[in-house]
Amino acid sequence: MKDLMGLMKQAQAMQQKLADMQAELGNLEVEGTAGGGVVTVRMTAKGEVRGVSIDPNLMKAEEKEILEDLLVAACNDARQKGERLAQERMAELTKGLPLPPGLKLPF
Questions:
Q1: Buried b (16+ CB within 10 A) or exposed e, 31-66
Q2: Contacts of residue 76, Cβ cutoff 8 Å, sequence gap at least 6
Q3: Where residue 85 sits, what CATH number does that domain have?
Q4: How far apart are CA 100 and CA 64, in angstroms?
């Protein structure tokens, strides 16, 4: 019975740590770039876009499709960086816990 109570306390502590980490990821920002830095997108590690920066030289009507493609590429770059950051934080949080390989926690 002692082990069960200890396990329950561990689970509650882990749940709180996960909630704290989720909140932290909402505040951490990553930056994605495309076109050698002519388009930059800032977003949270949870994927909320916070800002976009576009080099003024791309603001030409005939460059519209290029700009659209660069925006998509920069968003994807930032999203991948955010996912990587979240995975790193999760690895730090769960270090030493006997979790099965490949277990996806709620992210």
A1: bbbbbeebbbbbbbbbeeeeeeebeeeeeeeeeeee
A2: 32
A3: 3.30.1310.10
A4: 48
Residue 14 covered by a domain: no
List the domain range (segments joined by +) for residue 40. Answer: 29-94
Query: Does any domain span residue 63?
Result: yes
- Cα separation, 39 vs 34, in Å, equals 5
Whether this model's pTM surpasses 0.90: no
Q: How far is CA 91 from CA 18, 32, 63, in A?
A: 12, 23, 42
What are the tokens at 80?
């991948």
In this predicted model, what pLDDT tens digit does every residue of 44-92 receive, in sequence order?
Answer: 888 889 999 999 988 888 988 998 899 999 999 998 998 898 888 888 8
User: What's the CA gap between 12 and 19, in Å, rounded?
Assistant: 11
DSSP 100: P
Domain count within the chain: 1
Q: What is the DSSP letter of 99?
A: P
